[in-house]
Task: structure prediction
Amino acid sequence: MQKNPYLILGLKPGASREEVDNAYIEMKNKYCELRYEDGEIGTNASKMLDKIEIAYEDCLMDIANRESEATYGSSYGEIESLIKEKKLDEAQDLLDRCETRDAEWHYQQANIYFKKQWHSEARTQLEIACDLDSTNQKYKDTLERLKKVMNQNAAGAGTNPNEEQRANRAGYTNPNVASQDQMDSSAACCNALSCACCADTCCECMGGDCIPCC
Result:
């Protein structure tokens, strides 16, 4: 398990966004050069770069959570705690009870959708949050990171099972994707037709006619 992300970046827990950004850039530049060294130095530098990336993301998330709690009070803070604990239904219930649907509300909704891997819905909520509060760097950064995730996932073909489940719950299915029963039925029809044609050929050879029209 990776240790405290602030310590990896050489900072004290609770450091500011500016301190985190500066430490991240400094350490990344340092180890980017070392990773081209031969032997163990280069190997360790590459591993350290991976740790730095993870630590940076964790620090940004922690800073965002601290800012949310300071700005919006305990309600959103409790929702974020539930999301971290993967209690998504409880988080959604608490979020639905919020009277004000402000930028932070849509940001928290995006977090829930992202945890459910509903990336398109999460992106929509983040875009709304950015529109409502265009100066909020947390919303902008989260949206950009989500776009990167979606672009990486776009490289893989196929239907997202979560999207198919949502479609089925909404009462429709993808018209371009045949169900297994439909495919099995089609295969059975083709086999029956092939057998009938073979039987007709044999009957004609024997002087009969299994299929009169042929």
Summary: Residues 181-214 form one domain. The two ends are 73 Å apart (CA to CA). The chain is about 70% helix and 0% strand. The mean pLDDT is 77.
